[in-house]
Amino acid sequence: MSGAIDFLTNFLPGFLLALAVIAASAVVFPFLMRRVWGFMCDRLGPNRVGPQGLLQPFADGLKLFIKEDVTPSQAHKYLFLIAPAVALITPMLTQVVIPFSDSYTIANLNIGLIYLVAVGAFSVLGILIAGWASNNKYSLVGGLRAAAQMISYEIPLILNIVLVALLTGSLSLNRIVEAQETVWFGVVQPLSFIIFIIAGVAELNRTPFDLPEAESELVSGYNTEYGGMRFAFFAALIEWGNVTVWAMAGSTLFLGGWRGPLFNSPVWLAVKVGIMALVIIWFFSTFPRLQIDQLMSFAWKVLIPLSLLNVAATSGFILIWPENFLLPTAIFSWSSIALFIILFPSVIRKVLLRNRLRLLATRKMTTVISGTGKGGIRS
User: What are the tens digits of pLDDT across the range 31-45?
Assistant: First the structure.
C-alpha cells in the first residue's frame, strides 16, 4: 500500500509534468516557427484554422493521428514500431533532474549533471533504430549520419558542461542554479555558452546541421518510411521535445534557471526556454545546410580544440585564484570571442580561396583525363 502511495505522490506527478511539457512544446513551437519563418520570408504563415491560425497545430496533429499506420513489408516490424517510443524516452527522462523552482525538482540528484549527460547520450538511439529497421537506404544513411554527428558534437557539449561543474564545484543542478544568484555563467563564460548552443543544435539535428533528414538528399532521412501517428511522434513530440529539454538544460546551466532579475519563478525558466527555442528558429530561417565533411570538420577542428582550451584555461584560473577566478575567466572568454570576430573574416577568405583553387585543379585534371581518353591531350 505504501508503495502505491509513493508512486502516486512522487512518480506520477513528475511523469505527467514531463509529458505536459513535451506536449505543450509540440503545439507551441511548431506554430511559432511557422509564423516567425513566414515573417522572415515576408509572408503570413498559418492563418486559416482558428483565430490568427492558432489552431493549426491541432489540425495538423489530428490529420496525422487519423491517417492509416503503414508498416513497410520488408521492415523489421517490431523495431520499426518501437523506435518512436525509444526516441521519446530521452526528453521524458532528462526532465527528471531539471529544477523547475527552488522548491520543486522531480528528482534532486547530487549527480544530476552526470545523469543529464548519460541520458542525453541515448537521444540518437531511437533515430538509429528507426533508420536501420526501415530497411530503406535513405533511412539507413540518415540514421548513420545522426550517430556520427552525435559522437562528434557530444564531445564539445560534455566539455562545456564539465566547465560549468568546475565553476560551481558541484554536480547538482540545484546547486548550479544557486551559484548563479549574482551573475549568470553565460556572462562569465560566453564562449562556453556559444559552443553549448552550437553543439546542442547539431545534437538536435536542426538547421544548419540537419544532415540526418536532409530533404534534398535523403527524402526525409531516418523517418522516410514513417507516416501517420508515428511520423507525428518524430516530427512534433520528439523533435520539439528534445529542443525544449535542451533549452531547459542550457537555461539551467548558463542563464540561472528559474532565477530572474526581479523575482524568482518558473516563469523565468519558461521565458528563457522560449528565447533559446527562438534561436533554433532563427538558425532554421537563416543558415544554409552544411555539407557532411564541413559538419565533421567544424566539430573536430574548431569546437573541440576551443572547448579543450577553454577548460584548460578555466582550470588554471581556478588553481591560481581559487577565491576570485570568475573575473579572469570572464576576461579570457570575452577576449577569445573578440579575437575570433577579428580573425574570422581573414580565415574565411583563406578557406574560400583554398577551396576555389582545389576546384580549379580538379576541373583541370578532369579536362586532361577527358582529353586523354579521346586520343590525346588537346592544346
Answer: 888 888 888 888 888
Are 150 and 124 within 8 A, CB to CB? Answer: yes
Can you give the pTM of this predicted structure?
A: 0.86
The domain in which residue 237 lies consists of 64-320
Q: Rounded CA gap, 108 and 114, in Å?
A: 13
How many other C-beta atoms are found inside a 10 Å radius of the C-beta of residue 91? Answer: 27
**Cross-strand bridge partners of residue 331:** none
The helix, strand and coil proportions of the chain, stated in percent and rounded to the nearest 5, come to 75, 0, 25
Question: Is residue 57 in a domain?
Answer: no
Contacts 24+ apart (CB under 8 A), 356-364: none
| DSSP label of 105 | B
Could you tell me if residue 376 is inside a domain?
A: no
> Does position 4 have pLDDT exceeding 60, yes or no?
no
User: Which of 304, 334, 335, 328 minimizes the C-alpha distance to 314?
Assistant: 328
- Does residue 36 fall inside a structural domain? no
- Count of domains observed in the chain: 1
What is the total residue count of the chain? 379
